[in-house]
Amino acid sequence: MVPVPYSFYVLFVGFSEVHHISMKRVVLALVGIPTALFLLLAALMIGLIFITEQSSSSRINPHSTLQNTLP
Predict the structure, then answer these.
(1) 4 touches 15 (CB < 8 A)
(2) Contact 16, 23 (CB under 8 A)
(3) Ranges in the chain, pLDDT < 50
(4) Which of 17, 54, 58, 70 is 20 to 30 A from 44 via CA?
(5) In angstroms, what CA-CA distances link 64 with 35, 43, 71?
(6) Could you give the CA distance from residue 33 to residue 27 in angstroms, rounded to a whole number?
(7) What is the pLDDT of residue 56?
(8) 0.70 exceeded by the pTM?
(9) For the chain, which residues make up each domain, given as ranges?
(10) Considering the chain, what is the average pLDDT of its residues?
(11) End-to-end alpha-carbon separation of the chain, Å?
(12) Cα 61 vs. chain centroid, distance in angstroms?
């Protein structure tokens, strides 16, 4: 359990020192941007599923009766 937090610490401090930026910007770059992209893609997928469900359910006529066409 110790190596994981320490590796994040080294990652954050390393980016901060190498690129000469504040720790807030490092956290935003390494955590905020991927989280925002994930949420955006999830919202797009949910919207796509909703749209396809609406279009497929509008093609079905619930009042039609099934007729047996086999001889």
Answers:
(1) no
(2) yes
(3) none
(4) 58
(5) 46, 35, 21
(6) 9
(7) 72
(8) no
(9) 3-55
(10) 84
(11) 69
(12) 34
